[in-house]
Amino acid sequence: MGSVCVAASVQLKFASLSEDDVLVDPQRKLPALSFWLNKNNYNSQQAQLWCLTLFFTVSLDDWSLLADSSVLVDPSLSTYDVIHVSRDVADDRDMTRDWCLHACQEAESCAAVSLSEVESATRCVLYPDTTVCGLSSAPESPASSSCRLVVKEPAPQVYLRRGVFSELSQTSVSIPGQGVLQGVAVETALASDRRTVVQFLGVPYARPPIGSLRFEAAQPAEWMGTWDATKPRPSCIQPGDVASAASSEDCLYLNIFTPRGRVPVLVFFFNPSANENPGLLDGSILAAMGNIVVVTASYRTAALGFLSTGESGLHGNYGLSDQEAALRWVKDHISLMGGDNSRMTVGAERGGADITSLHLLSSSRPLFQRMMLMGGSAFSPSLVQTPSTSRRQALNLAKELGCVTSDLAACLRASSVHTLNAAQTKLLAVSGPFQSWSPVRQSISRSSFHRVDLLLGTSEHDGLISRARKIKDFESLQGRADSKTAFYEALSRSLGGATGNELLKEAAAWFYSLDHSPSAAGYNLFSRALNNATRDLFIICPTLQMARHWAENRASVFLYHQPASSAHDRADVYLPLDVQLAFGTPHHPMSSQRFASSDRRLSLAMMTYVSSFIRSGNPNPSRSWAESVLPRWQPVLSSEAPPTYLELSTNLHHQRGLSQSSCSFWTQLAPKLTSLTGDRNFYWFLLVSPMEKLLALCLALSLTASGWKTTPKLHLFRSSVLLFSVPSQTRNKIEIEHQRNTNMLNNGN
């Protein structure tokens, strides 16, 4: 706020008299006025304004008198203005109060006023909006009680303006070289307050990738005149989507949610499904509560985003080019809508988080300063495909569509988007994660990552079965009754790693108890176990590896995990619960009835953490009051093994050892199994039960006693898994001997 608290527009309502217009009567007593602003005397113009504003009245209906429980005191607060009103000027306390409140109303960024008595004056402190929200100390208290105003000093009276930002902000913006975006101002309820957020929806950041631009990198948007940015446009079509106006190939649009002022920016890549309702990820609540600009953007995925044959016509990575184009558009234009393009965070969820993490390796790195990955990481084993794998997948799609190799690119471009989508959905239902369309890259060097502030998270409810719900449902609608079985078989094969190692797959089946009875209950147990296995292999363990890698390289990294929660059953199944908490979905009028009060308080806490991270790279608000409202989120340290993480539940406790045994299996045992079984000269048995281990020892002794030249090899891992290897050429003899020993033990001989 500036030092002059009264807007210049007040002067326009009065005529300023010259000396010739004024008669001086020495018999009249001159008024004795004394007043200070930040300990500086008013100049004559300010004194004039002081007098003029006494004619105005203030309605207390526009203000809320806050209780002590709604106020936090933070002596380190530095954004405020002070006015001392001497009692020689006005000894009527109501008039003094009204003047201070009016001064706040006339200052654009003023939101609150505290009043106290000091010596012979009334002290008015004017504050911008310093509202903070977090967990209440009372577990069952309503979410609104978790929001408090931060002031520098205690005061008997603290007033907060109702609807602090209810005035309409600028809803039209001129984009240089293109035209005018016409947005809409929307009032957003936040606890007991209401704030205005301006939405610019369906803003084109690139040309529609249709026709000849299918399978091409994103091209700059071309439009002129006035663009209706009051409604969202279709999102990018994805595998499993049914034909609907909610998704399309013409989909390179972003949605902007902006409060008032120059504030940091979150660019969140998100592709809502055509099967979802509503499809728009509303950033209004996060923007209002966190005082940040929120941008959500769609980008091409699957075959439309990453199909590649390795040839010039189909080079792949179109989805990555979409993301970079969106980031460049925001970097160039977001300042016109109140965003600070020098403080940009890029974020994404689930499979999109895997893909987005590749910007840590690319030329788009200067476009952002921080990254937030919710359910994905750069260390996922299925993140990238080699050119040969990608070409094989492209040829499979071409065959499904009836395209001949000689005219592959033209045929794929000529296919209708819904025909192509049905074909790729069918292939994905049986291919598994290592055969899906992914960014094409020969390898990833962990030493080449750009170091940025990082916020990572995982969820207990996540897993590849959960993520592929749309694909399974779509295939069932096509009448392919065996689609679920084929899909589960593909996922089971993926547990053998990229090479499909049978012994590794067998070990994973043992570790996760994937054996099941043919009953419905047994099948459900199998499905749950397979989901857990893929969650650990592709999501949680790679995320932990990335967190450790970041910490070891002295980069700032914060980690959370969403445990199993009853709130998950109440939430929208198509949108992960941690994403809903971060975007304030439990507070949205369309969805709040699905959530409990504890969910809304947790959402307030998550929004506070996220917005603080976007502002500073640290999710902890940099104020002395912070820990009285929210537990301090501890960073991952290089000296920690296993890393500390914040449990995203009601109490927000810190934990260690997330999926420790599972990740030991995938990061320690699995590589050894793969390397040992790579020797084709030996045949390997995996032995896990006590009986199997006893038989192996008996077999080794009997073979040695019988004079075999090659002694079987035994490899013990963590006292639970025994590997038994024999020369491949003796496999049949070994199996006969092994069966004989088994029969002897079973018969009690």
UniProtKB/TrEMBL annotation:
Carboxylesterase type B domain mapped to chain residues: 171-666
GO BP terms, alphabetized: thyroid hormone generation
Pfam families, per the entry: COesterase (PF00135)
Superkingdom per UniProt: Eukaryota
Main location: secreted
PANTHER family xrefs: HLA CLASS II GAMMA CHAIN, THYROGLOBULIN
Localization in the cell: Secreted
Signal peptide coordinates: none
Keyword set includes Transmembrane helix: no
SUPFAM superfamilies assigned: alpha/beta-Hydrolases
GO cellular component: extracellular space
Native species: Haplochromis burtoni
Keyword set includes Cell cycle: no
PROSITE patterns xrefs: CARBOXYLESTERASE_B_2
Keywords: Glycoprotein, Repeat, Secreted, Signal
Alphabetical list of InterPro entries matching this protein: AB_hydrolase_fold (IPR029058), CarbesteraseB (IPR002018), Carboxylesterase_B_CS (IPR019819), MHC-II_Gamma/Thyroglobulin (IPR052001)
Family label: Belongs to the type-B carboxylesterase/lipase family.
The protein's name: Carboxylesterase type B domain-containing protein
